[in-house]
Amino acid sequence: MQNSPSKSALLIMDMQNSVVSRFVDSEKALLPFQKAIEAARSHAIPVIYVRVAFRAGYPEISSRNKMFTGIASRAGSAVAPESTMQIHESVQPRPDEPIVTKLRVSAFTGSDLEVLLRSRQIDTLILSGIATSGVVLSTLREAADKDFALTVLSDACIDAEPEVHRVLIEKVFPHQAEVVPVDTWVASLSN
């Protein structure tokens, strides 16, 4: 039996206003994301956006969750303004591109991402996002456990800690994914 060709999707993760404003100090840092999106669109590769968002009062956040409890305690009972949850204007989705809302670090946790991917017969994920040590790492690990083939776009990942980013990109991710800069990935699409 012959294997069918793989079907890919580009994940643009946590590129919402509240995250971009904390991690990105220059519009130049967003150029690799823009180039990846443009290449995916021109090669009919679905682009799927992932964001994190909660209901008013943050009922989804357990007091045992060290990372997310801080978000809830800083916000109190108010919900974050919708504008902070919107995808950053530099990487805006088209009307036909889905925005998946998650409830934890991994793009899969609390979201319908896997259902969306399986319904489209997608078996290969191209990962990008903020932060390398957050959503990219967590999604990579879970996606690998779900048997997706993986590519990480090394320069379309941003982390607050350059050394952590380097170690993940150079030493950790290659065990489960192909790790390439955007330009290399774009060039491979023409082959």
TrEMBL record:
The keyword Hydrolase applies. CDD domains: cysteine_hydrolases. Signal peptide: none annotated. Keywords: Hydrolase. It holds the Pfam family Isochorismatase. It comes from the Bacteria. Residues 8-181 form the Isochorismatase-like domain. This is Isochorismatase family protein. Belongs to the isochorismatase family. SUPFAM superfamilies: Isochorismatase-like hydrolases. Transmembrane segments: none annotated.
